[in-house]
Amino acid sequence: MDDDAHDWSLLPLDLLRLLGEKLELPHRIVFRTVCKSWCSALPSVSVPYPWLLLPAQQIDDSCTFLPLPSDNEHHSYFKFSPVPPLYGMCYAGSNGGWVAIVDLAFHVSLLNPLTSAQIDLPSLLHLFPGESLPNCGGYRFYKTDGNSYFNDFETCRDYHLKKVIFSSNPTPNNYMAMVICNGFPSAYTKAGISKWISLDFSMRDLIYYNGLFYALMGPSYIIAIDLSGDDPIKRVFIDDDIEFFDSLPICEYHYHYLAFSSTGELFLILRRAEYVYLDPDDDDDDDPIKHETIGFMVFKYNCDSSYYWDEVRCLGNKSIFVGMNNAYLLSIEDFAGLEANCIYFTDTWEGSRCNADKGRSNLDIGIFNLEPKKFQRYCLPYEITLPPPIWFIPSM
Hints:
- This is DUF295 domain-containing protein.
- It holds the Pfam family F-box.
- By secondary structure, this protein is mainly beta.
- It has three domains: about 1-45; about 90-240, no CATH class; about 240-385, no CATH class.
- The protein is built from five helices and 28 strands.
- It has helices at about 15-20, 25-30, 35-40, 155-160, 350-355, and strands at about 50-55, 65, 80, 90-95, 100, 110, 120, 130-135, 140, 150, 160-165, 175-180, 185-190, 195-200, 205-210, 210-215, 220-225, 235-240, 255-260, 265-275, 290-300, 310, 320, 330, 340-345, 365-370, 375, 390.
- The protein has a five-stranded mixed beta sheet, with no helix packed on it.
- Strand 13 and strand 14 (about 195-200) form a beta hairpin.
- The chain is globular, with a radius of gyration of 22 Å.
- Residues about 70-75 have low confidence and may be disordered.
């Protein structure tokens, strides 16, 4: 063995404990993953609830995490490095301790921000019929009618890419991923495939659960997609497409999310949002000043119900996390500090783009309590426009 090589696992446990206790929370998590002796030197790390992963600032390319305070009086955010360069990347999805990041050239990677592990996926660019014009700073896309349009690189990525959903605990030799595109069919890729393969349909939302992808095709029409074989296998999971909007208050926009509980119960979350205008009575004023969520409704799948879906007014000891992530339904018993019967939400791309254009740094982020139907809004610790933050659960 080289004289300079050392077996760091043989360090005294007392010394390891003294060193580990001086580390910030994300460093403590990484410390415990080095080896068995390092793990045993520190007690298990208590994660209060999922963190927000904030966009990287130009002058500081490290990860910034924000555990939302329950009293909204302070912000105990912290930075963590080293990680691959994140400035200019968009967060397109997250599942557990992994995040999907996409650059301006539509290159996709799965990143574990705490370990710096990175899995490179194929580029998404070939899904969109067009050409790159570097000298002009953007892409020209072609429509089926023969016409074309031009957008800068960032606008193209932010507009055409809606969400990347991927399998749990991915490795370079074992992962599956699907993407929802705006204006184009969805697509999939997996380990061993060198490109994204376009599908013949679009979807409203997508979630990965227990080895399968579940796609929301209409208001409540859901198919299950199995990517484990040579070709995708699709089967109808819920074939009755209930139009919920007839019973909802009139508003301009709706967003849909699917979420599974740990016991396999399926939930459908409807998010109501609207653009707020300076003077609603002025017909000439069509310039919105902000985009804001105004309410949520939650439904639980019930195969014995004539309508298949029962409205949920109380989640019991659970809460839901929605945004660009693989939606989470978590129990307050497993995550200290989590408020029960709440929906934790972060901004959408559409909302953050509108608010960024209006110079608003406080995005549409907060908590909605289902029983009193009240909002608790959050302000972030520093100015953020794009991309919107994303929910992240540290891998223990």
